[in-house]
User: What shape does this take?
Amino acid sequence: MSARPIAASTISFGLVSLPVKLYSTGQSSAKVRFNWINRETGGRVKQQYVDVQTGKVVPRENMIKGYEFAKDQFVTFEADELKALEAQAKETIEIAEFVPAEEIERVYLQRAYYLGPAMGGARAYRLLSAALRDSGKAAVARYSARGKQYLVAIRPVEEGLVMEQLLYRDEVRSFEDVPLEDGSVNEAELALARQLVDQASSESFDPGRYKDEVRERVMALIERKIEGEQITVAPVAEPDTKIIDLMEALKASLAGGAAESSSDAGSSKLRATGT
Assistant: This one.
């Protein structure tokens, strides 16, 4: 079944206009959500908006949007005024420049969308994808949509294009804000750590090896509850927070990994022989 586009736009670079459609790159497993229920009636409880000054519930028709420009001071906007603020959006993707793809740090990445060619854009679409792929560049562009302007990067993927929504510079915190304690790394510890990395390394990333185990566990418990079973919380062991010798921890990790690998090999041998 073909994917359905979630939006349409036009990429412009130079005098070239490329009509495209945006597609979601995937569907994340939905978070298990719970509703608030009246314990006495079993009915669902709805949210209400309350005036902080009077404590009274405000009906929807009496509500208006406002911007807080100073402490507890708001300038309000009617619906037509809000539309005027959004009128500048042109639903276009305007390429500003091309940069080496590796120069765009991953910390700027917010979300991604696949781009597909719209009617009449197939040749220009493949040309842009090939040009980016051959040059090792990514296009940095401004994407205007739904009253907002987004900073995006367009990269080649396989024979097509992917658009990554980026954070603006002032939205990204500096790593200098992260407190780091003083510490040193000696050569012996580094050698063991490298061995541990090598031992747990794979040739490529296979996302199929991973699944949301927490969600599966929660859904299984919900099914048991639906069937009438009483759910109880199993005791959880307190995490061991004591400080241990780093060298000993590395050695134990390596020994444990080697034992696990040996066990996996034995299991594979048993499966292969049909035992």
